[in-house]
Design brief:
The complex is a heterodimer. By secondary structure, chain A is an all-alpha fold. Chain A is built from 14 helices and two strands, in the order αααααααααααββααα. The chains are: A mainly alpha, B mainly alpha.
Amino acid sequence: MIAIWYAVVSFTLIVYIVLDGRNFGAGMLQWFVARTPEERRQVIAAIGPLWTWHEVWLLGFGGTLIAIFPRLMASAFAGYYLALFLILWCLIVRGISIEVGGHINDRLWQAYWDFMFVCSSFLLAILFGAAAGNVARGVPIDGQGNFSMAFFTDFNVREHVGLLDWYTISIAILAVAMLAAHGATYLTLKTEGPVHDRSEKCARYLWIAAVPLLLVVLIESRIVRPDLPGRALFNPFWWIGLVVVATAAILLISGLTSRRELRAFVGSNFLIVGLLATGAAAIFPVMLKSTLAPENSLTAYAVASSSTTLLRASFWWPIGFALAVFYFVVISRRYAGKVSVQHDI
Amino acid sequence: MNSIFNDPGFWHRLQFGFTIVYHYLFPQLTMGLAWFLVYWKWRALRTGDEKYNQAVRFWAKIFGLNFAVGVVTGIPMEFQFGTNWADFSKYAGGVMGQTLAMEGMFAFFLESAFVGALIWGEKRLGPRGHFGAAIAVAVGSWISGYFILVTNSFMQHPVGYQIEPNGSLGIASMSTYLLNPWAFVQFAHNQLAALVTGSFVVAAIGAFYALRGVHPVQAKLYLRAGTLVGLIASLLVAFPTGDQQAKIVGNHQPITLAAMEGKFEGGSMAGVALIGQPNVAAQRLDNPIEVTGALSFLAYGHFGSFVHGLNDFPKDQWPDNLELLYYSFHIMITLGTLFIVLMGLATLQNWRGRLESSRLLLWVLMLAFPYPYIANTLGWMTAELGRQPWLIYGLFHTRDGYSKVVSNGDAIFTLIGFTGLYFVIGLLFLGLTGREIGKGPEEPAVATIISKPEREAVLV
């Protein structure tokens, strides 16, 4: 039961990252693939109508996390206090810059909001990457299950760690590269003209750049968490994740080389889902490892709500999920196809 | 002075209070406005009259701005349960997390999927599809309101829970939790109050256009719908929903009721103070003008009913800011009464066909739109201050709920950050909304073609 709920909670977060990740990616690349104000509007139009729907997945994750793993939510969110508010503020600025940029047809106004859009997208990719690194590395949890952390300490990965160290920074760099590649793949699918051509080129370079970065992070992870590989081998979800990664990589490569844009984008989505899923499966059942003492680590079993509460939640959650998918199917058919500035704004 | 700086609980409360009050300025309009959009879209479908579609297009833009600010300011709310109220989340997360998650899964997915379609999708969806999108958005926003109110009602009047072996709360009965009687009353009262906000804003913009002499057809439409809905909603907010709300507070939180009324000594034939200042040090209401027996009647149904005073309860169970609670409640009631009078007058004049020519009334209508926002905010302040010193009434103290690992400085820092960020967002929102109102609804293409030569003919 707890393992299933762990999978569900991870799944909602992964879906959020993969959905909003393409918006972060498109945002980071806006200045590089779009030069004129019209082209930049085209990038916004590609992600425009559905970004709030994507952000709801973050809310779905937050709510489910409180209900299912209240003690993890409490200690993690309070521990990451300032970092989390940085993420929330960046999300606010990102959302505002998407919404208000188009309201006034003025070059300076739009240039300013495009700048805010690019900056907040970069920061969000970095922060979410560093957050993933923190979960993988562990945080200084004390005997009461609490922690509070500085942004950085001595950049080392043992004992009194900070939010940023060499390991979390390298994962942040990987996150920037992969989400940018993901966004470029999405823009290739959704745009035409010069934005499309530049995005296509960007997607190739970025995916190629992501491969060595991913290898570096894997080797680093072996050093930071030597305990993981042994446990992961016995977790079926880890193997499923690995199969997803392999299949998605093949789809992505064949899509990019044969210019099948939809195939490449599907591959890109599942590649990120698969990678995050293998990561989530590998650390189970420890949800947040303590860098101070192994017995302080928060495991899914220790932080979960009672089994009756979990049972109550499993009656309604699948219905809510099915409805969410249904709305998505209804609405995404309306937004299928390429966007062009003339028609959409 | 010093004690406040040293009390982290104060800063966590202030931050949550500030961010939630600010956030709720936006959903209260969208929840009210959504049904205007549904109504006009339905009229457009039935009559084929283009003026209704113009109204929908114009108000959908205003709706979109409100929705966007509502989303970006709403996301921090959920996360603050963990960042600022970690000990509360540890204790009650298994219960109230359920409805927070339900709000996302059942309401926000629906609302956010269709709001884009409502604003930009008129051509792609066709008239029926567009009507459907309006309904989806309206229903989604009201469902989300219900789930949040269930969460709040649990804090006011906990039901359906059990205490787990580790001391935290879990769900004993989901249906009892979701069908909390407090939530029904609060939902009715709150949603009607949102409708009051929506109707005042619609009427205000109608009055603005009427006073300027622009968009006469649209102005008439907004004034008619705004004043009629405004009157009905204002009446229903007071009775029966406000009355029921007072009764449920009287039954389950008698201390709160005493504090709301500034009643220190209990007794039968208890009066409602129309005017008066609570003097907590001397434990009395200064300069009161009271309607004798009214409180007994309103709260318990008989003039002779006994109403508890604050002195009937130990002092550590009193709400911790009596004056603020008293004034919030009383100003809300006063404003609510004035809303009925104003909208009643406007509806009467409209029925006589004289609303567009009553300039004074139009001025008042135009300038009245901030007051429902104030009344809504004060209503929530009454609910939340009245619940103190409890976070979950009778179960869990507010002082036990905040995150003990977060330092005072961190809480003050983020509060300042929110203040700055929300100030900028407020400026942007007002500026952009003002622009849209200034531009106004598009005139129908046909009408301009006909009217232009006509106007020239008149000039010649």
